[in-house]
Design goal:
heterodimer; A: mainly alpha; 13 helices; 76% helix; B: 122 residues
Chain lengths: 250, 122
């Protein structure tokens, strides 16, 4: 069976809300890039290579604020540590384990590392919320073509929007510009709710969201997301263990 | 130090911004995706450790959303804080009210925010 059918399914899933949301938020990155006097191509390249709205905003925003480049690199890196747990969850859904030969079937080698590195490059918030929601329901051999179709489509849309934003953002009325920046928190809130299937998901969402103001005030700058994510995710997991142990004891 | 970078800027001609994007933006960020590739090798999606990793990733995502609203950059700061949260809550309720439609949730939340942003300015 041709994998292109699944690639096309991924492209269709990406058109509409995921692409729209990413275009709205990357328009702003194009504007930031212009503000520091970089060429349009640098903004477009940052979308394709960094592929993380918050990281790109840290990069261009810190340069605008006159922060020294090594310090900017550290700040960008800190904002991207979240890709470790995010990529691990997504890649576990995508990778195929090696299988020894059995009767009538040749041995399978599993997903090669070079392919895993390519798949990992596309990991970002959008691929994560859509992927964790959709991939578990799909047969494993259809997941990688679907994922690549999806990710390349949203990345293409976001790249286009970065270029458009470079020229356009300064012309927008402030209320509309605010609306553009609001699209991504709004989308991620409902997409997280749509993807929450078990109690542990809801626990992690509510704890992560609810404690964010306290953690932002207490944690060292730049580390608040990491502290909150690891702390609240672990707390959600422990509560989940406790509930499960009680259910088993009963 | 900034004088040093200014010299590099000059020496690389018009390519300096691209070099910055690659070495200050791309590589420090991408390295974490590579780390994940090596950590996840051979782990099954149902393994206990991935239940925990997924909970951490979910809490991180929720934290990102909260942070975007707590310390908004640029134009979003025009809209007063209480209204940002109000529009988010409105969109969230709309998502459940309109048969769990992501599109309805986003557009209703968005419409509320643009409306309030417009009124706050006039």
């Amino acid at each position: 069976m041709s994998p292109w059918r699944h690639v096309w399914a991924g492209i269709r899933a990406a058109m509409g809300m995921p692409s729209f949301m990413l275009m709205c938020s990357l328009v702003g990155v194009g504007g930031l890039c212009r503000d520091i006097g970089y060429p349009m191509g640098a903004g477009v390249l940052s979308t394709m290579l960094i592929w993380a709205g918050p990281g790109q905003m840290v990069l261009f925003g810190s340069i605008a604020a006159g922060v020294a480049l090594p310090a900017v690199a550290i700040a960008v890196s800190l904002s991207s540590i979240r890709f470790v747990p995010m990529s691990m969850t997504l890649l576990s859904l995508l990778q195929e384990a090696p299988e020894p030969a059995s009767e009538g079937r040749a041995a399978k080698r599993g997903t090669p590392t070079w392919l895993m590195l390519i798949l990992a490059h596309y990991v970002a918030a959008t691929a994560w919320v859509e992927g964790t929601r959709r991939l578990p329901l799909m047969p494993r051999e259809t997941r990688i073509p679907f994922y690549l179709g999806f990710c390349n489509t949203v990345m293409g849309a976001a790249t286009l929007a970065t270029g458009i934003g470079y020229y356009l953002i300064a012309e927008l009325p402030p209320a509309l510009a605010a609306g553009l920046l609001f699209t991504s928190p709004m989308y991620f809130t409902v997409a997280l709710a749509a993807g929450a299937r078990r109690a542990i998901d809801w626990l992690a969402i509510i704890l992560g969201f609810g404690t964010a103001p306290i953690i932002a005030a207490l944690a060292p700058p730049g580390l608040d997301l990491l502290f909150g994510g690891v702390g609240m995710g672990t707390l959600a997991y422990l509560i989940h263990r406790l509930i499960r142990a009680r259910a088993e004891a009963a | 130090m900034s004088a040093f970078f200014a010299h590099l800027d000059y020496a690389t001609g018009g390519l300096w911004p691209y070099i910055v994007v690659i070495f200050v933006g791309f590589l420090p960020s991408e390295i974490w995706r590579w780390v994940a590739v090596f950590l996840v090798k051979g782990l099954s999606e149902d393994s206990e450790i991935l239940v925990w990793v997924r909970a951490v990733a979910t809490a991180l995502m929720a934290g990102v959303v909260a942070k975007l609203l707590l310390s908004p950059n640029g134009a979003l700061a025009v809209v007063p804080a209480l209204w940002r949260w109000g529009a988010l809550a409105g969109g969230f309720v709309a998502y459940f009210a309109v048969r769990r439609s992501i599109v309805a949730g986003v557009f209703i939340g968005e419409a509320l925010l643009v409306l309030v942003g417009y009124l706050a300015q006039h």
